[in-house]
């Protein structure tokens, strides 16, 4: 939704600038013990987002938002991950994780970096990156370069 704004929550204004996606595929994830697991992964939504900072008052946080559903072979319902990747970051961070039962396993809120953060597996990150590129939100996006938006200038430049 281009230019739409969510309601004000407390003193935080959230603006969804553009985006929407739906991309699904089976993804094989390498585990630390060198074994692998294949999951069904679906990117339900991606969007460019900006929000007032709760840490640095007066500042605005810019980044990407994604909703990722990951279904294990033994489950009929997915784990649901809400993700963010902020400007200058190279990885997708898990903002919230809901189990197939609907129980919340973890929740920081979008772009929260003031608590313990965890990233998604690189194989899943590649799928989310692909969805972002397909939607045209960011043309040059991968796991080796920091996120940038050409229309934003950094302070002091």
Account of the protein in words:
The chain is mostly beta strands. The protein has one domain (4-135). The protein has one helix and eight strands. The protein has one helix spanning 122-135, and strands at residues 4-5, 14-18, 23-30, 36-52, 60-71, 79-86, 93-98, 104-107. Strands 1, 2, 3, 4, 5, 6, 7 and 8 form an eight-stranded antiparallel beta sheet that branches. A hairpin with a 6-residue loop joins strand 6 (79-86) and strand 7. The longest helix is centred in the C-terminal third of the chain and has 14 residues, at 122-135. It is globular. The chain starts with a strand and ends in a 22-residue tail after the last helix. Residues 1-20 have low confidence and may be disordered.
Key words describing this protein structure:
157 residues; mainly beta; 1 helix; globular; disordered N terminus
Mean pLDDT: 78
The succession of helices and strands, N to C, reads EEEEEEEEH
Number of helices: 1
What is the radius of gyration? 16 Å
- Specify the helix fraction band: under 10%
Structural class label: mainly beta
Unreliable parts: 1-20
Biggest pleated-sheet summary: 8 strands, antiparallel
Q: What is the total tally of β strands?
A: 8
Distance between the termini: 30 Å
- Gross geometry: globular
Kindly estimate the percentage of residues that lie in beta strands according to DSSP. Answer: 35-45%
- Whole-number count of domains: 1
